[in-house]
């Protein structure tokens, strides 16, 4: 696998583009120790956090001020040690050795000190400019684990600050300790990078000796500083036994997924129509206003019926479901449930030559496939990582959920009485995810047997302790980071797309409008796979971002022959079914196409950056597109042969 | 000689030797699985594999073929707590 951008960065602080006048603080630590939470609390930034190892895969940077001085904080990827030869370890190691930070803060999980001390002791061999942040003290207390910070400080010879970063406890003391170490004279020892080189030059027996000695030391220190009462982690074990049991493990997994979808569909209905009412009331007022100032008809048409209506649609259709879906999913992430999913499913992934950690990267893909692709760095084997990258697309992302949720609601759920409609809709979405999962396995298997031959590599996964979710923080971060982020992306593209659709619908060539001409051209191909010309046009417009598929489609339909007001799902159904001949087959094929088709250009760019390969980027684009066309074609033709759908 | 893969849930043992090489070995060492480490089989996946082991206060899942590269002794003594 090719080197990533981070790896190409050459030695020396200047190369890291850190201002000379600022003090540089590096944040290191095992995965899942709350490092990102500490980073966010110190800098006020909102780095995505969650309870599974490997969330921070790129280097995040921010700054804070203390006593008139500016500190530049760099959040390194979580690593168990500095000695392994994988991307994350290399990034962390290179920065600690070559970036010459003024202070290294090692964030340590108080509930598992012994294991965490390994990294602390390794860092201490490179530099004495260290502050140990003893985080998750509340978790330790709840699990009957007591850590003596004073004794630990004596043992390590550097400041140890107990913290509860999620509640900002102990952070003032942490900042003070950082400042003290930054200004402590006599710590400018000659660079210890030789230590690292020596380690890599050592023969295997010598390496083993070093590793054993470090853990023996960690064991000795932990024995002195940690007191565990008998009940430690008992609740976790009970919960684990239930959630990963043969009898209920998989049913619980599906039920949780269904529950999230049900909440999304059942909860989004009312706010969606309220929002639509409100926004179209505003549209009327805007129209009156435009008329009052005597704006020309084409300008009113372009701005109100094009741009504004596009925005109104995106907001009312996409905002409520996302505002429910993302917080609910973040809750699962925060609890620590996702690694249990990876643990339960690993055998299935192994059978197709892939890695159980793909369950984690797939879950990340639910949010955004580009993020999912980056998160595959937690998979050590390049072969398995490439499989995870190529197949990540089969997990519907942010941009595709609105399409899927809308179709499940308007076409599938609406065909049932309202009492069971939301349940049916939720079931449909679970079916879509299962289908995506199945295609993922199939494609993984195909790749393992052909272009990416090879056996499954080692699988080492930590199952972190369950954590009490921080409800308010979940709401705050998932609304701000994910919901508004996606909405903003949609709006930024929907506004011009709305305007474009209006122009296409109102500029004529010969006796047809441009829109009619393009749609007519694409229509035969669309019909062949159960869709139509408008839908294909929407997918072409949506190459930069899947979020705009629905808005573009609706815009095109509304502008096609007449402009109509749409205020509710019933009217939406009317527009699609009565005016444009949609059938359940159209809806099914569109859902399949949405699930399977090529990733957006942002994701493809990310794939190119991560693999460094044009060939694999092309495969990642064309393989899903081919599968989407093939599956939709087969479904449409079979359905027609059997006399279902148009 | 017995390996970690022979350990049944609830049983505890001491690591004697790692027979793996390369990245697998490094990963195991990173997590503190070195000769002398007490390990306890704790949780078995609903599909029978992998198995999660308690190691130094953390819960680590390993696949059977990987666990089989770790040699252990006194596999059946239920000694120390977790």
Low-confidence stretches of chain A: 1-11
Secondary-structure element pattern of chain B, one letter each: EHEEEHE
Q: What is the average per-residue confidence, as pLDDT of chain B, rounded to a whole number?
A: 88
Q: Please name the CATH topology of chain B.
A: SH3 type barrels
Low-confidence regions of chain B: 77-82
Number of strands of chain A: 11
Distance between the ends of chain B: 24 Å
Rg over C-alpha atoms of chain A, rounded to the nearest angstrom: 27 Å
Number of helices of chain B: 2
What does the model show?
The complex is a heterodimer of chains A (about 650) and B (about 80). Chain A is an alpha/beta fold and about 650 residues long. Chain A has two domains: about 5-230, Rossmann fold (3-Layer(aba) Sandwich), CATH 3.40.50.300; about 250-455 and about 470-640, no CATH class. Chain A contains 26 helices and eleven strands. Chain A has a six-stranded mixed beta sheet with strand order 2-3-1-4-5-7, with helices on both faces. Chain A starts with a helix and ends in a 5-residue tail after the last helix. Chain B has a single domain (about 5-75), classed as SH3 type barrels. Chain B has two helices and five strands. Chain B has helices at about 20-30, 65; strands at about 10-20, 40-45, 50-55, 60, 70-75. The model of chain B is unreliable at about 75-80 (pLDDT under 50). With about 80 residues, chain B is of the alpha+beta class. The relative contact order of chain B is 0.34. The radius of gyration of chain B is 11 Å and the shape is globular.
